[in-house]
Amino acid sequence: MKKRPDQKAERRQRAEEIIAELKTLFPQAKIVLNFSNHWELFVSVVLSAQCTDKMVNQVTATLFKKYKTLDDYVNADPELFEQDIRQTGFYRNKAKSVLGAARLLKERFGGTLPRTMEEMRTLPGAGRKTANVVLGNAYNIVEGIAVDTHVKRLTRRWKLTRESDPEKIERDLMELIPKEEWFRFTYLVIEYGRKYCTARPHPHEACPLSRFG
């Protein structure tokens, strides 16, 4: 069922108010994964799926010293690599994605991360969320809104979307939020979800944005 125009205008206003408050709460919101180049950014984002950024940073502190170049990943022993990233969870799938992406990156893209959503998504492990995060942080290219677990949970709570599929949530948010806010929005919501409105039971009425839902 299509949303009535007045409903969309109301939700757009709600989104505007939420973003304004989030900017006040977190003026420095940004990615917290540690990396020193575009490839390490990609690896970190793939490892962060269903894992805390804190744990990813602990793992990559050692990983990036052991695997210094793209060729180190291309030539890596899959079983050893699995153990190197084991603490991030789902390590077999993640190892397959990272090592497969390294090979494809070398063979098809000359070792340089692509600059478009379409090409980025040809890399193993790169869905829209990963592609949005990598393109935005590597190249300042913004083609959408990265929908992680915090964004999914809180935008539904704030009644900005009724969807549960991340790509449908992203489409809803892109209709409501000005493009110049797309990139930063993800990190504002993540900070809020970590500091105030966690997924764990808590006194929700004490959250700064509790009036929105």
Question: What is the succession of H and E elements?
Answer: HHHHHHHHHHH
Average pLDDT score: 96
Q: Please indicate the percent range of residues in DSSP E strands (runs of 2 or more).
A: under 5%
Task: Find the count of extended strands (DSSP E, 2+ residues).
Answer: 0
Given helix and strand content, the structural type is mainly alpha
Principal-axis shape: globular
Total count of helical runs of at least 4 residues: 11
Q: In terms of per-residue confidence, which ranges show pLDDT below 50 for 5 or more consecutive residues?
A: none
Q: How much helicity do the residues have?
A: 55-70%
Question: How far is it from the N-terminal to the C-terminal residue, by CA?
Answer: 23 Å
Question: What's the Cα radius of gyration?
Answer: 18 Å
- Largest beta-sheet details: none
Describe the protein in words.
With 213 residues, this protein is mainly α. The chain is 61% helix and 0% strand. It has eleven helices and no strands. The protein has helices spanning 5-25, 38-47, 53-66, 70-74, 78-84, 91-109, 117-120, 128-139, 149-157, 166-176, 179-195. The two termini are 23 Å apart. The model has no long low-confidence stretch (mean pLDDT 96).
